[in-house]
Amino acid sequence: MSNVVSKTTTKLTAVVENLRGRAHWSVVHGLPRVMITRMADKGDLQAKLVLSTSRGDDDLWDLVEEMRAQGPLFKSGMAFLTADHATVREVLTSNDFRTGIPGRTGVVGTIGQALAPHALHPVEPPSLLVTEPPDHTRYRKQVMRVFTMRAVQRLEARTQQIANDLLDQLEAANEVDLVERYCALLPVTVIAEILGVPENERSRVLEFGTAAAPSLDMGLDYRTYREVTDALISFDGWLGEHLESLRRNPGDNLLSQLVALDDGEDGGLSEMELRSTAGLVLAAGFETTVNLLSNGIRLLHDHPEQLARLKADPELWGNAVEEVLRLDPPVLLTGRMAQADTTIAGVPMRSGALVTTLLAGANRDPKVFTDPDVFDVTRENARDHLSFSLGRHHCLGATLARMEGEIGLRTLFERHPELELLPGATRRTTRILRGFETLPARLS
């Protein structure tokens, strides 16, 4: 009898969770998805941008220029929008704004949070992406030590060794998918070592990160939503086990240092804060760098004259990475919400107004960059791009990403100067992160 009751209870729980999941999807993704499609049909530029990126289309840049023609800041049906370099800088550094995700604020956001699955989410508190001081300051302080310039310099030799090892494993291969065999494995190996993830667990971390990447987006179809939710729940469970393992057997890594701190006046993190921060650092530590590497490979392959410049002057490799970040950034945009009535670029807006800052558009602002659509590894102000955002939410891992990008790209093209990309490359269909899902190549 008890077995029957137990099975019935399990089935009822599954039914309730399924209904809860469908209700959450409807509020957070289903309704916005319908609205976005209707708005795009009526010509709304931001809605068209969302649909374009979700298809992996490369008509992105035509849309960016249409947006730029509207002025430094204009109102779409979804939010205020800017592709202007100066305006993006102003919004990202202003204390009048905080992080804001369309569909996750106001009444809709409150309902969505009430229905949300029981798992940590990168755009839900206490994630670093959506918290503000004083909590954000405290979380950021805990992880800053591993991303300082000095700490990253200590990782250079190990990163070079990892790149060499990965390419050694490809020596016998002729045709490979560079995303799968190189772009993904290099940064995930580096961040896994930083965070004390055992070698036999790294493939799981890579799977979790890939599956959860669309979690930053809005308007997901139900199938993708379920895949993302399942990945986040699995990742949350795995992360809890990993942190417990580090408590029992601490090592010389960032997470061991974080779990050793008590929650309290010394600035330690609570269990939820620890898991949220650790999860974000782990996933963000390789997802965007995969995009940087794949975008860079495509640009350098398609511009052999720029590769020739790098061969003639290897000191330019660091600047080449900045130019890749400028011209084809791993993160397309970020959102902010006004905390008070304010005026930006001469446009008044009320408290609660959403602003989408198009980082990719600011990076091609002709007022800042001469011939902005041209790939030039010698560009003197390439580093003026905004691909790592600005202000208190400036990317924690910017220094690490730059180092991995330089070593990863330089080593690949030094080892395989005749590398040839093959037909069949596909863009990721994520709407905020931009990179390649597949990048087939012939190495020799």
From TrEMBL:
InterPro entries tied to this protein: Cyt_P450 (IPR001128), Cyt_P450_B (IPR002397), Cyt_P450_CS (IPR017972), Cyt_P450_sf (IPR036396)
Gene3D superfamilies given in the database record: Cytochrome P450
Key word Phosphoprotein present: no
Keyword Heme in annotation: yes
Taxonomy, superkingdom: Bacteria
Key words, A-Z: Heme, Iron, Metal-binding, Monooxygenase, Oxidoreductase
GO molecular function, one term: iron ion binding
CDD domains: CYP164-like (cd20625)
One GO biological process term: cholesterol catabolic process
Family, as annotated: Belongs to the cytochrome P450 family.
Name under which the protein is recorded: Cytochrome P450
Organism: Nocardioides daedukensis
